[in-house]
Design brief:
This protein is of the alpha/beta class. The protein has helices at 24-36, 47-67, 82-92, 109-122, 165-174, 266-281, 284-302, 327-336, 349-355, 372-386, and strands at 12-14, 74-79, 100-104, 126-129, 147-152, 178-182, 201-205, 215-220, 237-240, 245-247, 307-309, 317-322, 339-344, 361-365. It is globular.
Amino acid sequence: MKDFDYLGEGEVYLDAACQSLRPRPVINALTDYYTKHNSCGERVKYKWGKETDLLVDATREKVLKYLKLKSRKYTVSFTLNTTYGINLVLSQIDASKFNKVMTSEIEHNSPFLSTMAFRDRMDLPREVMKREEDGSINISDYDFKKAVVVVNCAANFDGRKLVNLEELRKAVHKAGGILIIDAAQAMAHSADVLRGVEVDAICFSAHKIYAPSLGVIVWRDELDACLKPLWLGGGMVDDVKEDSYLLSAENKEHRYTRFESGLQAWGEIIGLGAALDWLDSVSKKDWQNLEKCFTEVYDFLKGSPKVHLVNNAPNPTMSFYVEGLDSHLLGEALSRENIMARTGYFCAHYYLDHVLGLPPLVRFSFGLHNRPSDVEKIKKVMEKIIY
């Protein structure tokens, strides 16, 4: 694609699951902020600040539109990344309202470790649920009574989706629990599993959705009743007296400040808005090209008896190891050929290492920047390595 014209000839970037490349319109939006209206949002009355405020407000609206959620029910807050967002939400939950915390076996360390910390801090039991090969959770196997449930809706090593997310939401809410979703791996290429599903909070990283480095929390306003303010500071209050304060979040229009302490990354927020506009403009042909690229590589890898794929279906994110080869050394060999791929356990140590007992893996994660020439190079280089 022309919007990734800075990607050099022969350079193959396969680490979009970590962070996607940024298209030119996103880079331009970030540059425009710093060169045309660099200013503090929500604090100033001069022209630059007003421009920043308009663009930041527009980004909040675009996030909700992208997820097909209503502004009368949901609020968008900005933070650092997915991990930070999940921890921030959990740190403010009033544990007296709940009986336990639950997560699943295929989680990134973000939910997996944060639910451990929540368990220890709140002295509540913690339960790890099984996930099926298609990513679903067998709802009938679990009791969600007054549970805080934190799970992903797309895995970061094989992209499997939580295909029964709506069923899970209904079960959790019926049992008086809350559902927090790690959407880091879903937002760019699998947002369909999320759209219109009214969970309690969705945390994701903008840098995995073709935007600058940024975290986002999309949360149901009803969640506010379960929260206790913890982090307080600038940008979060309407008035402060010697021994008391009035939170801005008490006002519906400023509810987002519940999770926004201090000065925000205004340029990055505006860049996210540009990324969502850009995604909206991506042609059907470009999406088809992406699918063709990752499907062809998946089929190629699956065709070799030496390659052991974690995936059981094509996905923009695929993980594997090659029999008899150390994956880290393989990653180095690929790098020498200008193929950039991740190696290891991808912050999913528990499932990949201790449940499946796999050696360190190689992960290929594709994005809209990938080209047919990338596929040909991957196949050519891997053929030399495999055979």
